[in-house]
Amino acid sequence: MPTTVSGTILQTPEPGILQVLEDHVVTIDDEGVIASVVPRAGVVADRIHDTNEVLIPGLIDTHVHAPQWPQLGTALDLPLDQWLNDHTFPLEARFSDLAFAESVWASMVPSLLRNGTTAAVYFASIHEPATIALVEACIEFGQRAFIGRVVMDHPDGTPEWYRDPSPSESVDATLRSVEALRSMSDPLHLVQPMITPRFIPACSDAAMEGMGELAAATGVLVQTHCSEGDWEHGYVLERHGCTDSESLDRFGLVRPHTVLAHGTHLTGADRKLLISKGAGVAHCPLSNSYFSNAVFRARASLDSGLRVGLGSDIAGGPSASLFVQCQQAVTSSRMLEDGLVPGVSGIKHSRIDIPTAFWTATVGGADLLGIPAGLLEPGRVFDAVTLRIGEGSTVDVWDDFDDWDRTFEKLVRRSNPSNISNVWVQGKCVTNQDPT
Amino acid sequence: MPTTVSGTILQTPEPGILQVLEDHVVTIDDEGVIASVVPRAGVVADRIHDTNEVLIPGLIDTHVHAPQWPQLGTALDLPLDQWLNDHTFPLEARFSDLAFAESVWASMVPSLLRNGTTAAVYFASIHEPATIALVEACIEFGQRAFIGRVVMDHPDGTPEWYRDPSPSESVDATLRSVEALRSMSDPLHLVQPMITPRFIPACSDAAMEGMGELAAATGVLVQTHCSEGDWEHGYVLERHGCTDSESLDRFGLVRPHTVLAHGTHLTGADRKLLISKGAGVAHCPLSNSYFSNAVFRARASLDSGLRVGLGSDIAGGPSASLFVQCQQAVTSSRMLEDGLVPGVSGIKHSRIDIPTAFWTATVGGADLLGIPAGLLEPGRVFDAVTLRIGEGSTVDVWDDFDDWDRTFEKLVRRSNPSNISNVWVQGKCVTNQDPT
C-alpha cells in the first residue's frame, strides 16, 4: 500500500531556480514512484517532518571510480600520469582479490548513501567478480547504480599487470559482465550496466570499436573520460588527429545518455556534437582542480543545452560528498570568471550559483542518465534525502532573516552526513537511523 | 598537579614536513604549558588514546568576522561591494542589540571549538558592548582569541547607520575596548585585544593615523585587510598613490605580528616591506575565490620568508572549518599553477601540499601572532585536538597501505566535527564529549 512522507521540499526544477513546497505530503506507490505531491493541510502522513527538517531530491553522482575508494583524499600533489601509474593502477589491480573488493564496497556504498548520494555511476575495475560484487553491494544496501567493468587494453597506456589481454577479451568480458548483471535478482530495478572504456590512452582502437558495436547491439549506456586535461587532450590529437569527442563519436560511443567525465577541454564544436547526439558531461569540479589544467565551462555548457551532471570523481576529487562538489563547482566557476592573478580577468559570465550547481547534482544527473529522478514530483521515483536544519545541526537558521533562499544556500554549502537524517531510494529508506 | 595525555602526535614543524610521534606522552603543567613530550613506553598517562585516535596541535584561525556568523554560507554570488553593503553591513549593524550579539557568540564560539579551532583572530563589530560580550564568550567557552572592536568612519566607504561618528571617537572607543578587555578576569590569559581598522576604504586618514599612534603607545597588535581584490587595490592606489602595504606602513600599522588579511595583490616590494617589519598575511583561500579576483601567492610568500597563517574569513569564506580551508589552499594553489583555460598555464611552482597548508593553520598562525602554540612540544601551550580515525570515522585507514603520510592527508581533507573527539586550550578540555 502507498506510503506518505510529509515535509518542506526544496528542489531545483531549472538551473538556478529554487522551488519551495512548504509542508507538503508526498504519496509513494508500491513501486517507489511518486503518486502525488500536495499541500499537507488535513492530510495524515505516515512520516511527518517538522520545521527542523527539509526534504530534497537524492543526489546523483555521475562519476565514481569505485576501486579508488581506499585512497580518497591522498596523493593529490601529483600530476595525473604519476597519480595513475604509481598509486591508482596498483590499487585497482588489487581488486583481483574478491574479499578485498567486497570489504571496500561494504565501506563505500553505505558511506555514499550517508552522504545523500542515492544514485551513482561507477567505474569498477577490470575484474568481473569484483564488478559483480559491486552490483550485489548496491542491491543489498539499496543504492541506485550504473556499473561498468572497466576496459583498458592498450600496451602503452596501461601497466602489463593491470590490463585486458586483448581487445576481443575486452569485448567478451564486458558482454559477460553485462549479462551477469542483467540476470541478477534486483527487485527494485536499482542497477544498470554501463559499457566502460576507461579513456582513449588506455584503449586500443580495436577495443574502442568493439565497445561501440556492443553499445549499438545491446543498447547499454556508455561512460568514459573525455577531454580531461592538457596531456590527455594532446595525446588524442596526436593519435587520432581530432578531439576526444570526435574520436569517441567515430567509434560509435557518443550516444544518447553517454556520460563523458570532465570535458574541461571541449571545444564549441565538441559541445554541438555532444548535444546533437544527446550525450553529456559529468562535471567533476574538485577533481578538475587537480588534474585538468582548466575549469569546465559549466555556465556556457548549460546555456548551450548540453546535458551536465555533477560528479565526485572519487578518488581524483577528494570528497565523497556532492554537497562539497556543489560548493566547489560554484567556487571554480567564480575563479574562472575572476582570473588567477591581479588585474587579469577570466572569462566573463562564467559563474554559476548554488541552485544551478544543485540542479546538476539532481535534475541534471537524472537527465544525463535518462532516469525519472532528481525532483520530487509525480511520475518520478522517490529518491530523497531528509536534512536537519536549525538548532543542533550544521545549518543554523536565524529566523528573522534567513528565508528559504538563504537557508538552501547554507544547507548545500554546509551539510554533511551528521545532518542527514534519512535517505530513500525507490521509496525505501536505506539509512539506519530510522528505517521503514 | 601536572596532567598527562598520550597518543600518536601528527604535526608539521616546517612547511611540508610531517612529524609523527607514535604513542607519546605529553605532560602538561598547571599553567597549561607542555613540560615534556616523550615516548610512552612504561609511562602511565592520565588520558590514553589508542590507535583509533591521533593528537594534532589546535588550529589557529587568523581571520574571522564574528558578527558575520549568522550569514555563513550565503549571498556568495555577489561582488564584494554589494555583499558588504546589502548583506554584511546591515547584519553587523544589528550587533547594537547586545542580546542578539550574545546569542550569536554562544552559537559561534562552541561551533568553532568543535571544528578544532583553538585560537581565533576576531573582527567584532563597531559596538563596544558586543565586543566585550565576545571576549566574555571566549573566556567562558575556553577559546584563545584576539579580539578587536572594528573601526570604520569614512563617510564614503561606510553607511551612515553603521560607522563611527568621528576619527576621535574611533580612537576613544578602541582605547576603551582595549582597557575594558585588559581589566577582565581571564585566569588562563586566553584573550588579547587587537587594534582593528576595517580596511582603508572604510577609514579616514585621521582614524588610520590614530590607530597607528595607539598601536605604538599601547603595544597592542594590529589587524586589518590588505590588498584583497582589484577594486580595493585600485581604490587605495587612487586615494593614497601607493599600495595597501605602503599606505598602512605610513600610518604606522605595519608592525611586528600585524595580521593582514588576504594579501592576494601584494607586490614583491610589499612582501619585502612586510617581512622587514615582521608583519604577515592571514591567507583565506576560500574567501579569496569569491572576492579577491586572484589567488594568494602562498608558495612564493612562504619561500620569501613572509609570515603566513590560515584564515576562514567567516563569512566571506563559507566554512567554519580550517580543515576545509587547508583543502582549498591546496586546491587554489594547484589552479594557480595549472591555469584556468586549456593550454594556458598559470604560475609555475605555485602549488603547496597538505602538510604545508596545515603548517599555515598551526605553526604559521602561531608565528604570525607571536604566541607559543601550533606544535606539541615543551614550552608551548597545550592547545590540541584529538581526531578519530579508522572504523566508524570520516577517515578510513586501510592498514596494509595507508602509512602516516597518507593518513595525515586523509584526515586533513576529510575531518569534520563528527570525528573530532576532544579539544584542549591551555591544557583544559573545552569540548563536552569528555571534559576534564
Q: How is the secondary structure organized here?
A:
2 copies of one chain form a homodimer.
Chain A: E1 3-14, E2 17-28, E3 34-39, E4 47-48, E5 53-57, E6 59-65, H1 80-93, H2 98-114, E7 117-123, H3 128-141, E8 144-148, E9 150-151, H4 167-182, E10 191-197, H5 205-218, E11 221-226, H6 230-240, H7 244-250, E12 259-262, H8 268-277, E13 280-283, H9 285-291, H10 298-304, E14 307-310, H11 322-338, H12 354-369, E15 384-388, H13 404-414, E16 420-425, E17 428-429
Parallel strand pairs in A: 1-4, 1-5, 6-7, 7-8, 8-10, 9-10, 10-11, 11-12, 12-13, 13-14
Antiparallel strand pairs in A: 1-2, 2-3, 5-15, 15-16, 16-17
What is the CA-CA span between the terminal residues of chain A?
13 Å
Query: What is the tally of beta strands of chain A?
Result: 17
Give the class of chain A from helix and strand content and strand pairing.
Answer: alpha/beta
Mean pLDDT of chain A: 94
Largest sheet of chain A: 9 strands, parallel
Give the assembly state of these chains. homodimer
Largest interface: A-B, 57 and 57 residues
Q: For the CA atoms, what is the radius of gyration of chain A?
A: 21 Å
Q: What gross morphology of chain A would you assign? A: globular
